[in-house]
Design goal:
mainly alpha
Length: 337
């Protein structure tokens, strides 16, 4: 069976590149909103904070599984690419891992610690969520530029970090619009408005900086047929942004109508942005350094890995759908045993 899969193995590297991209996109969407909720939790009173945490409680830990899957596939399917990425991003990766640890610990300690220490753990949960978001955005910005050196490369990565933080705040706000009620829902609408235009500012700043950095985006924007695709996606994102701005202006509505729409629109904006970025550096697995076909493991190895992935992937998808189906509806009070 392995021999049959690997005899014509040219498609295997692209399959794994797609699976890695899909895993990272799912992570950005699913963990993005709960990181956004974590950052926003610092701006409310205790009773509202508990309801916010309750809205992500059943999901947040499982959402990180997609990051583990994406990084794991990169390691086994593209070991050379994994080495380049980890070597170039060693420090921000270390900060992200430390923040992930603190976030996981503070999620439980913030409620179980003595009352005098709970405020500290609440701040730790919020600030670790911010650090995770910022480091992820910075690392993605560095990755897009192929780890180039220079002032403009660093500025692009910093602005992209700001963009990702704003995007996660938008996702978190829209999730709270969907999952909460009354005054907290109104606050979430206000947060979403601010996050939406903060994300637009981050996109403008990173786009302006990209002119001075070799991101390959502008090379493709002025060639055909890439021109039509790479212009259509920003235009679609702009249209969705304006639609969301209009919807946020009328929410909340009686009967909780349209409360789902901001989150759905934010998901589509993320998908469009992610698709545009991936298309801009295709066919590279590491932009400017390593192509997909050059950095892949041997065909026989990929064939074995694909079988394992085909077993694991449906379970992760199934669990995700099941969890969101079971815990649908408005968030209830969070309880600890």
């Amino acid at each position: 069976m392995f021999t049959e899969l690997s005899n014509n193995s040219n498609w295997l590297p692209y399959t794994f590149a797609f699976l890695i991209g899909l895993s990272m996109l799912l992570y950005a969407i699913l963990d993005g909103y709960d990181l956004g909720v974590g950052m926003l939790s610092q701006f409310v009173e205790d009773n509202e904070r508990e309801r916010m945490i309750a809205s992500i409680g059943p999901f947040w830990d499982a959402n990180e599984t997609w990051l583990v899957l994406g990084v794991g596939l990169l390691l086994v399917a593209f070991p050379a690419a994994h080495g380049i990425v980890l070597t170039s991003l060693y420090l921000p990766v270390a900060f992200m891992i430390i923040a992930l640890i603190f976030r996981g610990v503070s999620f439980d300690f913030r409620k179980k610690a003595p009352p005098k220490d709970r405020a500290t753990w609440n701040r730790a949960f919020s600030w670790s969520s911010l650090l995770i978001s910022l480091t992820q955005g910075y690392m993605l910005g560095r990755f897009i530029t192929g780890f180039q050196q220079g002032v403009y490369s660093e500025l692009f990565a910093i602005f992209f970090g700001f963009l990702v933080v704003a995007g996660y705040l938008l996702m978190g706000s829209c999730w709270l619009i969907l999952k909460t009620e009354n005054e907290l829902q109104k606050k979430a609408v206000s947060w979403a408005k601010k996050a939406l235009w903060s994300m637009v500012i981050g996109a403008i700043l990173s786009s302006l900086t990209a002119v001075f950095v070799d991101t390959r985006i502008y090379d493709r924007m002025f060639s055909f047929p890439e021109l039509t695709l790479l212009i259509a996606m920003p235009l679609a994102s702009m249209a969705l942004t304006l639609i969301m701005h209009f919807i946020l202006g009328v929410l909340p509505l009686e009967g909780d109508r349209l409360s789902w729409m901001p989150f759905a629109i934010s998901v589509f904006i993320f998908i469009l942005g992610f698709t545009g970025l991936v298309y801009s550096f295709y066919p590279y697995i590491v932009p400017g350094h390593l192509k997909i076909t050059d950095g892949a493991s041997a065909g026989e190895s990929l064939a074995v890995i694909l079988i394992g992935t085909a077993i694991v992937f449906p379970f992760l998808i199934g669990y995700t759908f099941l969890a969101y189906r079971i815990f649908n509806g408005k968030a209830q009070d969070l309880t600890y045993n």
